[in-house]
């Protein structure tokens, strides 16, 4: 790791950058344009976000608030927990623990850093972590292992049984940093009595662990408040998802990223609510006008990403889609699987949705356990890809429902789980009539395949399959 | 080494399997050591540990799996696709790791293209990743689900009594495995690591009662051996699954001896007995789920490190080879931690990534192993030199003392005695070299007699 990289705490750097960026639009246009010149590597993402108006500003402010929470946790007497995007942070907020979502941090670092997370990824390898492991955790994790992040108190994950590579990163972090570790473990079936019973008991064990580590007793009223807010947010997301069914899709391309980032960072918290409200205002207005969310206003194609997005610097994935006139109709990360979700209702998949009752603590714990078991990956890749409620069923249903013209798989080479079945999935989606593109790059590491090369292959796919004239 | 056993270790369809099938009995393959073999033994079915050994290419494996996947399940799929596992009447896929659990789908989908390669009984057997009262309950439920499926498909009854009898048979095998481990860890073992692996592998492909009888007599024979392995460097093999005796042979050569291991296809899962008291299903759940030697049981690193340290001490291991198959992140990452901690303990370690299957990387591995053994040899040399130096120092001190005593006895002035090193080491220390022996300023080396 270069000395220059070691000079500053990475989370402090990100807080300073996002906090400043969130205020850039407070001045005049001229001041804004002048200020951008002083953000040589970061201005692409800042400008792209601020172009979409109030939601962009809210999003930058949300990121800044998240980093501020992390940086000030100690002085406010709050504990911190390294966790994953597959884990709902609601329970952590209910116990006043600051969630440190590694994948989101890695994604944000990739978008903002000139060299992405390369040095942090390599730092992990230097310590003995495998280079073939998933880059989504490894980026931000490298920062913490190098002592360049805030103090961590515990490690909490829920990917054993879902994604071993992911779970392994958290186990490594716990062993290396010598921090207490808790894993929620998932059986391969989403819905059955045995699974439900197992998940309920496992979740209660998690709560006991968190109470012990944080020294805080779970307050049912606080949990209720967070869960009610999280459910209200999921209802807002459901409205956005419903509106995304319109042709043209009124959501700007980058909104999907903002939805899931907001949810993974601040589920059940006012920051996420403010972001979603501002997004809804834009999308409702677009829908009322019958306008596309694309800059050109001309939606030529609709793409469904069956796994994750590409977090190359400065949001170039979303900008490319926008430039090519491709309406983005979502991926598996953005789907909360709440009872109000359009796909739950339209497909009659009520059993696949979480349910929350707020009557007493037991009901609340069952509810949050159920919500957690519908988080990305936990919901759809815990079992065989062609089993009920799993990856193939979800992908085909969503692609059809959102009238996608094609499907894209993008992940990381470290994703043993999806690479173990993506060829089978693509064969089935092709048979179902969806041209399917498998991207061989790394969503978090441009060194595996440069963005330019990734884009070229993407456009080649569109040309070869005659999707774009 | 018994030819039959070596055959069982290196041939998919060995003599024991052929005879078993010839008698009209069933064989079920499984992928992971967390599956209780006893269930199948109790059902009169041969539990057969699936391997990828013998795959000479991976074209079928690569067709269904993606590129960033461990070559072990790919080789298994290759063998299945080539029809070399057609003797199986069933297969159980277990989520040992992500690559392995996706063998479930890849095998089934390959079956759509290659007729008849998917055994009629195909079962996904889930195993929790941690030990708690509720995970044990769930796992016992999963074993019962498996039993019910086996009973229904094969029209057999797996009663508690038969399960208890099977547990007894397997416990006898475990006791023998402990004896085998005892032989391996002796100061001058009568068997090589290559032989030990062949013996263990044979146990994954033959009926346990037959195996127990053969193993007992083989152990007796091994005890009687006069030719021993001598003063080879004592090595431990740790990490990803290895079912290739040739890998161990390559490591051992004529200089090393694999005296202990912590591997999936090896003794680690056969050592602890299953309780023969109470409900047999619960006993099986307890025994199998409490094993935490595999990194799939997350958050147990410290326990695994302690286990390695214990084995290293008891087997007098001089060096540890930490290997992982490429894309095996679970072992790969943990090996990184082991290397840090064991090297800090003063244990020579070698961390190596390899491909599963035929030793395509033989040359590279040979070079790495040679360098590793060289490190151990140097350490031995250094230790020997240190011991020699210590002995020399002790001899010198004794000689000095004797000379001084003699000088005193003769009444000759100590100043005139030539006593090497006296002043430097004994100056001002009456009683060590005799009174007034050292001469200040004499450099401590030479005193005129």
3D structure, described in words:
The complex is a heterodimer of chains A (469) and B (449). Chain A is an alpha/beta fold and 469 residues long. Chain A has helices at 3-6, 10-23, 29-37, 43-51, 54-72, 90-94, 102-112, 118-127, 135-145, 164-177, 193-214, 220-243, 255-266, 270-289, 316-324, 342-346, 361-372, 391-401, 416-419, 422-431, 451-464, and strands at residues 79-83, 97-101, 154-157, 181-183, 301-305, 326-328, 406-409, 436-438. The radius of gyration of chain A is 21 Å and the shape is globular. The mean pLDDT of chain A is 95. In chain B, helix 5 packs parallel to helix 7 (103-113). Chain B has one domain: Rossmann fold (3-Layer(aba) Sandwich). The radius of gyration of chain B is 29 Å and the shape is elongated. The chains are: A alpha/beta (469), B alpha/beta (449). Chains A and B meet through helix 10, strand 4, helix 11, helix 19 and helix 20 of A and helix 6, helix 7, helix 8 and helix 15 of B.
State the share of residues found in helices of chain B, binned by percent: 40-55%
Oligomer: heterodimer
Q: How far is it from the N-terminal to the C-terminal residue of chain B, by CA? A: 68 Å
Number of helices of chain A: 21
Q: Greatest chain-chain interface?
A: A-B, 52 and 48 residues
- Domain count of chain B: 1
Question: Keywords, please?
Answer:
heterodimer, A: about 475 residues, alpha/beta, four-stranded parallel sheet, 21 helices, 8 strands, B: about 450 residues, Rossmann fold, about 50% helix, about 10% strand, elongated
